[in-house]
Amino acid sequence: MDLGTRTILVLLAVGAAASADEILLKSGGRVRGVIVERTPEAVVIETGPGRVTLQTSRIERIVEGRSALMAYQERAAALSPGDAPGWADLARWASERGLLTQSREAWQRVLAADPSHAEANAAVGRVEVDGSWMSQEEGYRARGYVPFEGRWVTPAEHEALVRERATEEVSARDRREAELRVREAEARAREAEARAREAEAAAQPVDDGGIPYWWGWGGGGAVLPPVGPWGPEPLPPNGPPDVHPNPPEAPGTPGTPPSSIGPSKPTSRPAGTRAGVPARPAPSVPPRD
Asked: Does the pLDDT at position 46 exceed 50?
């Protein structure tokens, strides 16, 4: 079969191609392609990007037909390996119908037949540098670019970016250290405040409701200790002699009514002394020269 006859048959096959095999899902979706395997449990359908396996329980209905993928396979089978123009036409046709995997495959067939084919090289992501086609990475390196964080930059840009990153790291480290110092100072302040509260609580006097030792009690109430030139004087063991809850009877004839007894004269005592407490002699002062 000559090339012309084969081309005519391929065109007739493409013109007769109808819709793809279509699988309608119970969820409302649909998948188009070429069914390559069918079992009671699942159906395998080949689409442009690849094969998809669908469980039978998910399938509502299957509509069989011809697909663009089947037409591509028929056209590819009719091309010879060295037919660069034919493979290029098939690659464009597949790309227009969304068969990106098949389109790239056809462009690779073009490059195998003609490595300098510009459209095929560009289609597969190759770049031309000084008249030579190479991968993008090789092209960037050939032009002096260097990779940095997922992109290619010039050496000058790389140096500037490295300095910028270093400055950012130093600033971030300084901020972290400053925040740490602030937290430590706050912790020390809280600790000092707690110690101050504890010391203040410990310094408060404890009121146990007791009575000072120098208080005396009698019929007339509390008596303060006498004060002399050298400080408080000690009280007698039984309290002041003139303080008695039950004073003794007035002197007189036993049995004599109190009304017959005249008023008693007050006992004279040196000025500045309390009743019943002897006066302390004045301190001696040595003569001056």
From this structure: yes
